[in-house]
Amino acid sequence: MGQTSSGNTLSISNNKHMAMVSEAKVNGGDMEAPATDLLPALAEKPLGLPPGKYSLVGWDMDTTGRRLIDEICQIAAFMPKQTYTQYIMPYGDLNPGARRRHNIRVVTVGRYRMLKDTITHKILKTKSEISALTDFLDWLEKEKGDSKVILIYHEPRRLSPIMLLEALIRYKLLDRFKSIVAGFTDSYALAADKCKTTVKSVSLRVLARVLLDADSLSVDSALDRATAAYRIVEHLAQGEQQEVGAGGEGASASKDMVETARVWARPVLTELDALDNLKNLLERQNTFRPVFAPLLRAARPERKRVTQLRRILAEAGFLYEQLRDAWEEHKLTGLEKQLGLLSVSAKEEDIKELIEIFDCHFDPTKEPKGLKPRLSNRNRPTSSAGETGEAEGSTSDSQKSSPQNSPTKISNDVSAGDTSQIEAAPEPVAAN
């Protein structure tokens, strides 16, 4: 049931291709970044919202992964006088990264699938996704009064709003949501601007320690993250001469806080445009499946590199058919001419690697030039809540979820540099 509580609750089939996948750049940050080095939250300053009456709500959610097909497994919201949290029973299992980050997993007891807390080992009370989203909208409608809501969250890649909107579209709740919520404010972008001279990282943990004096903030729960995001905006709006929470524990948002959130907000329509752009990008990526699908069966470092190269092509507007036609007409020269257009947005080594991969793909007689040296797993990047993407792959904690149980969705990874292809319908043979 929805819980509303008072108070401040904080074998690779194509081995020759693998030689083309350089691992020289496989080090934490580069592999987590998209084709452009600038994080989506910082790529452009928010448009802001027009002046008006707004209610501020800290918000976050846990998901089974970072693809559009992935489901919400907890949604939470924070206001100084009220909080809302609800666990959701997903059709599928959480991927390994999501399990570690949120400390929950799907288990099977007899004939029933349940959500279990891996710390307390307790079975969690859950609802279906549509019921939880409906309850969430009911709660927002009740708390907002005669104002519009601005949802405050903390994330560098702007994934949560997109995934929430995709879920609302799936259940035909978008129109109601737009009548309640005016926009989203990302406290990551706000903190990156306000604290750029004082802190090197604006992750949730660092900001909680520096700004909120919370040395041991737990970020595995959506409610804790929603609370921290709200308090961070509250602190930054108050300025350096006031203590956080000076208005009292149950005090509502101050005028300065509302104004700060309003100026740094992105309207719902802006996030819907971002969702449409992402779907178009993923459609273009999907055309390269014949080339990259075999490479995505490799180890994680190679997968990360492959998805980065694939995203470079998709962001430049290329389609598989274009490169195939160029090779058929002019062979290697045609490929070099087409991919040479990437010189504006891509590095020279990326272009060379893409030329080699496609040349070997279209000409099976060509052999790879040799494997690049592999980096140690000890340097593998680790996930940090609210800061980096997901771990790869998905293993089942219970029985494999059957396709007939899951609603039809678009299967696309929206984590940085690791988007997988559209899977609205099963494909023959040949991605997170």
Automatic annotation (TrEMBL):
MF (Gene Ontology): protein homodimerization activity; RNA binding
GO biological process terms, semicolon-separated: bicoid mRNA localization
All residue ranges annotated as the Exuperantia SAM-like domain in the record: 289-361
Record InterPro entries: Exu (IPR037998), Exu_RNase_H-like (IPR054362), RNaseH-like_sf (IPR012337), RNaseH_sf (IPR036397), SAM_Exu (IPR040941)
Every Exuperantia RNAse H-like domain range: 54-211
Ranges of Polar residues composition bias in the record: 393-422
Record region (Disordered): 366-432
Residue ranges crossing the lipid bilayer per the database entry: none
Pfam hit, one: SAM_Exu
Domain of life: Eukaryota
Gene3D superfamilies, A to Z: Ribonuclease H-like superfamily/Ribonuclease H
Name of the protein described by the UniProt record: Maternal protein exuperantia
Organism of derivation: Papilio xuthus (Asian swallowtail butterfly)
